Amino acid sequence: MTSSRWTLLEAVAELANAPLTNIAERLREATLPYVGSSALVIFTEDCTGRPQKKAGAEGIISRVSIPELDQLRTRVTEGEVWHGEAAIAGEQRPVLALTSESNALLTLTEPALPEEPLERASTLRMLDYLWQLTARRIQEKVADAPPSYLLESRAASAERLRVTAELVDRHSTTLETLLAALRSSALDDATARKTVTDLAATSLVSLRTLSDRTTDLVEEPVAKAFERLREDLRPLMHFSGLDIQFIEPPVNGRALPGEVAHASRAIVRGLVLAIVEQPAVRRVRVQWDCDGVNLLINVRDDGLGELTSDSPNIARLNNRVTALDGRMNIEVMAGWGADVQVVLPLDPPSAPAGDIGGWGLAEREMEVLQLLAAGQRNRAISAKLHISENTVKFHVRNIFRKLGVGSRTEAIALAHSHGLRAPN
């Protein structure tokens, strides 16, 4: 076997085993032998806490925005490679873009492709293969995400909603004040007033749209989430002959946070698979309800009542439930089957700052993290603590390592989720 084939197999193995936090880096390493690029960005709504996964030039990956990626995705046809100029990280750049069946988007900036047509076509086929493999792995990894990922993802989602809401409130007030002033009868330049009024109104609509878009990324309507569960279980019904009855949640029920939607589907899938392993099970009933505060899940079978809470499969599912501050209860009725109730809170718990002791941060690192949580940049932290910017960077790297995060946003989200704020 040639060395290039070994290289490809090693790249595929790396992608298959990469954690979600590193999957963009692994994909970029896999694609670089075929397509050079300055940066690689994955935009996927499967990961509500981190919809962007990025690797490459810091000046690009630190500035690329969701509205830019959303706009680019409208120009890409599924199953085809899009190549052209697009606004990425605040500038028009050459871009290569592909989508997947899950509507995820892959973007390569400043791509370097072979000139020879046959070699170019072969390169694009390889790129598409590696991308589709990665997109499927992201879906699978999110569906089976460990409790630690669910906690971090929920914290990041909540923090992004908070920041976006603050931006919307601030800019909405500014624009509404501007509109009131421009509509004043004291201004006699009617043409100028109309032009600026129209511009400000358009900006206001755009800002509100951005807020709605951010909310869509981190929430899923409960009816839509349940329909996706039904689709997930359809193959099992087809091949096993199991009769699964679905009792749907109220259509107008509260939307589910993304982490709850993903986890609840995974929990039900795991419960159904555990139930199928029991003898004499012919029928399973799956019911979701929403009381405005919790997602209420009920799974019941008509077997012999042999499902046990201490089995490894059930224990793993219970870990997922616990990670979201939920609870699971199993009632077994000999000869009549098992009844499983799961309650998942829709809002994250308010964790006290005292829970941060396990992070192992030194006193100076804690001070830096508190200032990070207050939105301070390295230069401001340097001035506040009377240390150099290089020393701040050193502390930030240590904080990332100890918290197990890969960016300032994740560190800030985790700090806020534990009630950590800047010192007075």
TrEMBL record:
One Gene Ontology term of the molecular function aspect? DNA binding
Tell me which CDD domains the record gives. LuxR_C_like
Q: Matching Gene3D superfamilies, A to Z?
A: Histidine kinase-like ATPase, C-terminal domain (3.30.565.10), Winged helix-like DNA-binding domain superfamily/Winged helix DNA-binding domain (1.10.10.10)
> Mind telling me which PROSITE patterns this protein's record contains?
HTH_LUXR_1, HTH_LUXR_2
The alphabetical list of record keywords is: DNA-binding, Transcription, Transcription regulation
Which BP terms from GO are recorded? regulation of DNA-templated transcription
Annotated TM spans: none
Show where the HTH luxR-type domain sits: 354-419
* Domain of life from the UniProt record: Bacteria
Q: Is the Transcription regulation keyword given for this protein?
A: yes
Record keywords: Protease included? no
What is the name attached to this protein's record?
Answer: DNA-binding CsgD family transcriptional regulator
What organism does the record attribute this protein to? Arthrobacter bambusae
| Phylogenetic placement of the source organism | Bacteria, Bacillati, Actinomycetota, Actinomycetes, Micrococcales
